[in-house]
Amino acid sequence: MDIIQRILVFPIEEMPFVFLSLVIAFTVHEFAHAYSAYLFGDSTAKQEGRVTLDPRKHLDIIGTILIFIVGFGWAKPVPVNRNHFKYPRLMGIVVSAVGPLSNLLIAFIGVSMTFLLFGTGTYDTTSGIMAATRLFLNHLVMLNAVLFVFNLLPLPPLDGYRIIEDLAPQRVRIKMHQNVQWGTFVFLLIVFIPPLYAKTLAPLFFFAKFDLVSWLANIVQFIAG
Fold first, then answer.
1. Average pLDDT over every residue of 5-25
2. Catalytic residue among 13, 30, 48, 165
3. CA distances from 23 to 57, 101, 152, 196 (A)
């Protein structure tokens, strides 16, 4: 058991809450991509059964495992054919952006529920059910905040790269296509080489889990008066 715990970034007893948070985060993220693409006229994801909230259609084995080992991961990418859009580049940006934005929305909802349940003094916060609820909400907020920031990185195959690709002039887009494999290689180096991870992704995830979540909490408190 100790060996397993050394591999994992989360306590073993918290794994069910982490997994449930992951399922929600990945499923809603990929559904947002698929549904928005379908609304804009591309039925590619619809034909592959991705316009659904069924987690089995969206979870990726490796990306799911990495959540427990390094604290972040990914789901199966949603196939999108921008040629089916009336305005390919504009709608492509929207389709790419709604995924990370859905994670930000989930984080905001999680912060709001935490404030409602534990910041108003309305509920008994000493009960076992409430303790479990608070732990789940904590993981839900942190994981979605990290995924929001992570997916906006300008590296393939992340959403941030797709957004920049659609914003870039044609000559830049051509070069991006020609060198996409090198961008993917850099991404993998950053993810799997600890010194690079510590200098790049780790500070971003620290920002997501503390600064971004703090900002969301301030917004909730401002709205609540």
1. 85
2. 30
3. 11, 16, 20, 28
